[in-house]
Amino acid sequence: MKKVSFLIRMGFACLIILALAAPSFAGGKILVYSPWKDEIMRQFGEVFEKETGVKMESINISTGEIFARLKVEKARPQADIWHSVRAELLDKAREEGVLASYKPANAKDVLPPYVYPNEPTFTGTTMYPLVIAYNVNTLKKMGLEPPKAYQDLLDAKWKDKVVMPHPAASGTGYAFLVTMVQLYRESGETGIQSKKGWDYLIKLNNNMSQYTRSGSAPAKLVATGEFPICITFYDRVFQLASEGYPIACTIPSPTFAEPSCSAIVAGAPNMDGAKKFMEFILSPKAQDLAVKLGNYSVRPDVDPPQGAVPLKEMKIFQDDYKWGSKFKKELLNEFNTKVAMGKKTK
Amino acid sequence: MKQLRKEPVVLIVTLLTFGILFYFVAYPLYAVFRESLMSETGKFIGLANYANFIKSEYFRLVFYNTLFISVIATVGAVFVGMVFAFGMTRTDLPWKSLFLVTAILPMITPPFINAFALILLMGRNGVINVFLDRWLGFKLVIYGYHGVIISEILTTFPLAYLIISAALSNLDSTLEDSAQDLGANYLTVLRTVTLPLITPAIMAATLMVFMTNLSAFGAPALLGGGISVLAVESVIQTLGVLDWGMGTTLSVILLIPSFLLFYFQNWYKSKRSYVTVTGAPAHTEVRKTPWRIKGPIFGFCLLLSGIVLVTYLVIFLGGFSKVWGVDSSFTLKHYRLVFTNTMRSITNSLLLSSIGALFATLLGVMIAYLIVRQSFLGKKVMDFLGTLPYAVPGTMMGLGFVVAFNKAPLILTGTAFIIVLDYCIRRMPFGLRSGVSTLRQIDVAMEEASADLGAPWVTTFRKIVLPLMKPAFIAGITFAFIRAITELTSTIFLVTPKWRVMAVDIYNMVESGALGGAAAMSTLLVAIVVIVLVGIYRATGATASMFRM
Question: Is A32 helix (H, G, I), strand (E, B) or coil?
Answer without folding.
Answer: strand
